[in-house]
Amino acid sequence: MSFLRPVKLQPMRLEVAASQAWTQFVLTVLRKHRHFFADHACLRTIRTKLGEYIKFKVPPSVEEELFHHGSMLLKKEVWNEDDLSPDMFVLYMFVFYKPQMKHLEIPGLTRHADKVTVLDLLYNLGAQHGHLLETVKIKMFENHKISIEENYLTKRVLRGFMELKTLVLWKAADDAMLQIIGITCKNLESIDLWKSSKVTDLGIRMFLGLDAQNNTRLCKTLQKVMIKDTSVTDIGAYDLLLNCPNLENLEFSHGSFMKKFLDTIEESYVRTHRTFSLKTMFFPVLTSDSMYSVIKSFPKLEELSLWTSLSSLGEIKQSDLAEVRTLKVGGLNYSSILSDLNKLIGSQITTLKIETVHFDINIDNIGQDCPNVEELSIINARIGVTPPSEKQPFSTANMFSKLRKLYFFLVHYLNGPIQQENRAPNSVSNPTGVQHPATGYTALHAILKYGFQLEAVQVTGTPALTDSCLEAILAKNPLSNLRRLVISNPSSQEQMVVVPLTTRSVIALHKSCPHLQCLGDLRHWAVTPAQRGNITRQVTPLFLQQNIWTKVKISATRSALKSSSVLYQTAVH
């Protein structure tokens, strides 16, 4: 890709530069001593000497900051790792980690010996008084098939995390570990068990102490639970919902148990009118009755993700969705339900995401119904504006006046007609010669024209957006808050489709947008490589960053959907 970015001429603060230099030096020393790691003698000497220096020269808060800075440097160098043992992170942690620290992240480790060393170190340091860690992310395991030794050591380590509030334990967790966590981590607020296939419904019951004399304290403290790609079924998910009154976020794979889970919630509401505290929820809806019961079950909902083929909201009222600020909809067959949603709660929505709808979206209606929207995303849809032949039933003066982020992906712009005198012939050989939008006025024109607060714009381009169009837009809306503008044209064809924006637009944007930090993708613009070089000389504060351009291929596979979907919230781990 080709982008214009500002050159950072401001030097970093002296203390930041000093800490980076010191950390780099320490890593260099450790790298030289990797071959002495077998007997630990060399590392103990290094740890003693550095420990004395840190103890008398470095404040505790800065000490932990240095530790995390070094960890980040190790992450950046991971691709340059050789076959020497042990892993550099193991050496670094052996020398610098202390149980008084508040945060720890253990990255993926490939060797069994490295994992055992880290776990053994954590156990030894926390054996007497435990750790003061509040956030722990254990990502060292490659899959759920960990050894007996690793399993045993992990359980011992977990018993030292008494102050923990956030725990990430990927792939390796099992029911026995959940029982230990439930008893030990009495202040836990968030837990992520991604791909821990050995975690079952029984583990959830042990975690919450449902079969013990008293439930664990976690029933009162838990706010966020992630059980994606585990063996937990709708029964375990409902146990979490039922026994944790402060649970705000429950994330799980949208697989086979979704229908059973929603059926249980619906039956519970019909029978007892029971409500829950979740603030975010995704659910596919087949019937109006199901929609009503499920929505009524979550009166504190702040983020609603809805996938349905229904044509209306039925008996849903604004008071049922009074707290919703983020609306995500997809798979809609009828425009009426989107209109009903926007008219019902549009004034309170700050984030609107629309994906794969089977009708044309009128951007003017969204701007009118959602005056406070700050983030708008539309994926795989047709979008247009109100035709000039139809009288606008409302004023467009304040449309998108609060919009800050705009994202269009795989959209098709429906072009409105233009006046006859502005028509100009299309030129395939010279697209930059088009002085007026020969194909009409699009939704992109409208949003750029009215979005006075826009900060980030990443959109599919259109041949209708020319240099003259952009100049006219900047004359009315200088986009003074814009920081990022990426206009591309992903195509499944071998050739790239050119967006008819030239160096005129690059210079105009630079002059008009004082906060612009990223401008691209110029590979899709009518800007030649030679012209890009000239731009760097004309626009002094900018330089051109060119990477290998990778074409975006449109795929119907499930994985492609997950990568761009705003509804199917599969975390990228």
SSE layout:
Elements: E1 2-6, H1 14-32, H2 41-57, H3 60-76, H4 88-96, E2 103-106, H5 112-126, E3 135-138, H6 148-158, E4 166-169, H7 175-184, E5 190-192, H8 201-208, H9 218-221, E6 224-226, H10 234-243, E7 249-251, H11 258-272, E8 280-285, H12 288-296, E9 303-308, E10 326-330, H13 335-345, E11 351-355, E12 360-362, H14 363-369, E13 375-384, E14 405-413, H15 443-450, E15 456-460, H16 467-476, E16 484-488, H17 503-512, E17 518-520, H18 529-538, E18 542-546, H19 558-564
Parallel strand pairs: 2-3, 3-4, 4-5, 5-6, 6-7, 8-9, 9-10, 10-11, 11-13, 12-13, 13-14, 14-15, 15-16, 16-17
Antiparallel strand pairs: 1-17, 1-18
Helix pairs in contact: 1-3, 2-4, 3-4, 5-6, 7-8, 8-10, 10-11, 11-12, 15-16, 16-17
Give the structure's gist in a few sentences:
The chain has 573 residues and is of the alpha/beta class.
The fold-level CATH name of one domain is: Leucine-rich repeat, LRR (right-handed beta-alpha superhelix)
Shape: flat
Number of helices: 19
Rounded to the nearest angstrom, the distance between the terminal CA atoms is: 24 Å
Helix-strand makeup class: alpha/beta
What do these coordinates show?
This protein is α/β, with parallel strands linked by helices and 573 residues long. Among the domains are: 12-96; 97-253, Alpha-Beta Horseshoe (Leucine-rich repeat, LRR (right-handed beta-alpha superhelix)), CATH 3.80.10. 36% of the residues lie in helices and 15% in strands. It is built from 19 helices and 18 strands. Strands 1, 8, 9, 10, 11, 12, 13, 14, 15, 16, 17 and 18 form a 12-stranded mixed β-sheet that branches. A 6-stranded parallel β-sheet has the order 2-3-4-5-6-7, with helices on one face. α14 (363-369) links the parallel β12 (360-362) and β13 (375-384). α3 (60-76) runs antiparallel to α4, α11 (258-272) crosses α12 (288-296) and α15 (443-450) runs parallel beside α16. The protein is flat, with a radius of gyration of 28 Å.
